[in-house]
Each structure stands twice: as structure tokens, then as C-alpha cells.
Amino acid sequence: MEISGSNQSPMCANERRFAFSRRELAALAALTVSLAVGCFLVWLIPEPSDLRVVRSPELASLAREVAPSTGSHLININTASFDELVSLPGIGPKKAQAILDYRHANGRFPDVGAIERVKGIGPATVARLRPLITVQDRAPAGERSSPATGGSR
């Protein structure tokens, strides 16, 4: 059946036309751009094994709990060398030297938080270093001397 006298082009019964408003087109464009940026960031972000700093307080406390049991190497700030101190995140040559100078002038740190007394080291740095440093000497279990033997054979 034909309809004559109509200005509209003939359409099939199941054909539909879609028209987007400017707002919908802008939202679609923003979604496309964000998807492209997201894909780029996934490519750009390093592997988790490359990350050195734990910023989440929950993860930092978990690292403190797990570190001694896994045998990971904690750096003793009372006996650490310049090179060991520089290997810590956020500690460059100047801060490492400041730690050595403070230790020379004032003696051992009584606890890990006392490193904040060193000029240039603040609460944020202490929070970042806390899972990585210690003030206690740790000898492997087989090398500890027992009171009964006096440490000699």
C-alpha cells in the first residue's frame, strides 16, 4: 500500500531513527575520551612489584606484621651505613648524612619515631619509613646466645 502526497520518505515498518541531543553527544564523547585515557593509564602504571612505597595505613600495618615473619631485611637506623640509609624511600644523601650526624651527636634512637628529631624528617616521612626500619638488632634464631650456655661452647 502506498501513501501518496506525503513529504516523508518511505520507511519500513521496523526501521527506527535515532537522534541524539547535544547533551547526549557530549556525554558519549566524554565517555569515549575517558575510556581512551583509562586504557593509556593501565599501560603507563608500573607493575605492583615496581612500587616501593606503601601509602595506605592498612597496608603499612600489614607490612609491619608480615615483615618479621618473612625474614625481610629491616634497616636498623642505629647501625645503618650511609648507603643503607640512602636506599630508604624519601632519604637522600643530605637526610642520610643528617641521620648519621644526629646519631653521632646524640647516640642511639630509642624508638623508630625518634627519627623525627632529625632535621628535615617529618611525620609523613616517619610514617613511610616505619615498616622498613627498626632500632633493634635482630640476629637469626640459630645465632642467638642463650643464658644457659653464655653464648660459647
Give an account of the 3D structure.
This protein has 153 residues and is an all-alpha fold. Helix content is 41%, strand content 3%. It is built from 5 helices and 2 strands. The chain has a two-stranded parallel ribbon with strand order 1-2. The longest helix has 23 residues, at 22-44. Residues 140-153 have low confidence and may be disordered.
- Report the biggest beta sheet as strand number plus sense, adding barrel if it closes: 2 strands, parallel
* Overall morphology: rod-shaped
- H/E element sequence: HHEHHHE
Alpha carbon gap, first and last residue = 112 Å
Number of helices: 5
Mean pLDDT: 75
User: What's the Cα radius of gyration?
Assistant: 32 Å
Structural class: mainly alpha
Identify low-pLDDT runs. Answer: 140-153
Helix content: 40-55%
How many distinct beta strands? 2
Q: Approximately what portion of the residues adopt beta-strand conformation? A: under 5%
With strands numbered from the N-terminus, the spatial order across the biggest sheet is: 1-2
